[in-house]
Amino acid sequence: MLHSRLRPLSRRHQPTNTPAPAPEFQNQDASDSDEAPEDLFGAFLPHLFPDDVHSFHGDPGQHLLYSSPRYGDLNIMVPSYPGSSQNRSGETTVPAKTDGSVNQVNEERKLFAHFLWSAGMVVAEGVEEADTPAAPGKTETEAQKESRELWSIKGESVLELGAGAALPSIICALANASTVTATDHPSSPALSGAIAFNFAHNLSKRPVTRKVSLHPHEWGVLDDAFSAENKGAFTRIVAADCFWMRSQHENLSRTMEWFLAPGGKVWVVAGFHTGRAIVAAFLETVVEDGFVVERIYERDLVARAEGGGEVRREWRPVRDGENVENQKRWCVVAVLKRG
Predict the structure, then answer these.
(1) For residue 41, is pLDDT > 50?
(2) Which of 53, 132, 256, 316 is 20 to 30 A from 8, comparing alpha carbons?
(3) Domains of the chain as residue ranges with CATH
(4) What residues contact 29, with CB distance under 8 A and at least 6 apart?
(5) Which one has a higher pLDDT value, 143 or 262?
(6) E-assigned strands of the chain?
């Protein structure tokens, strides 16, 4: 199961100076006998309650062990924001502007910016499995071939938007993308905190020779040096759980159009924790802006098909009889291209 790949690292061994931990922080062996009881319990929750799906994982500043069958254990630091809640409530303290008002976009963004989201794990798993060689003497099914074609990243130039912990960027770098660029909002401490740590800790000791970088980017703001230098530069754009702010849909679409290379594709992956309507609204926006939805389906985050493949069903902007409990076990996966 997807979520069983995650395990919280012992709090006893985590740095306290978040969001920018000491570079010498070392991953702890899974057999650490001093691990806190709450960490051990949390590690087994996906096995004890397999149908209880969480859209997000970890607490602000927490370190999670992401177990990758292909690349080994990865230490992923969850972003932490000043004043962010430590009890998974999503509450943050938002600084006022000089006129005393609050930046509403930043306020909404920070409600979701300090967790590891399941949509990012879907991208990471897909890329990893596409980079895993087929077993000798075993013939791939049509579904496996289709999935490999969908998620293959070797030689592609990758841009991740709203990266947060940047797990998809790390996996893309390990899967031999030609370049990987993670971006987040210019005000995000994750740029110098979680993302910087996750890149340094997980890529510096592995055979990654590709160009990996991180840059601030505000969706729809395209007159800065980074935007000017990278117009049409990326053959793959990753947008995982970036769609909860309806007011930013047009800006996000503009950013995608600006950075996407001719013939390139955008991976849109989203859970339904803020409802189906918000995801459907974003898809309507990008189609109006000239994108084509090349492929779209819903994926079950819990069940696996016989043989280990994904359980999929048709995407529907409205699904009668759906409630919060059965809604959260599904996510939508879409591939966009220019029309």
Answers:
(1) no
(2) 132
(3) 116-338 (3.40.50.150)
(4) none
(5) 262
(6) 6-8, 56-57, 63-68, 72-77, 116-117, 157-161, 179-184, 211-216, 234-240, 260-271, 291-304, 310-313, 330-338
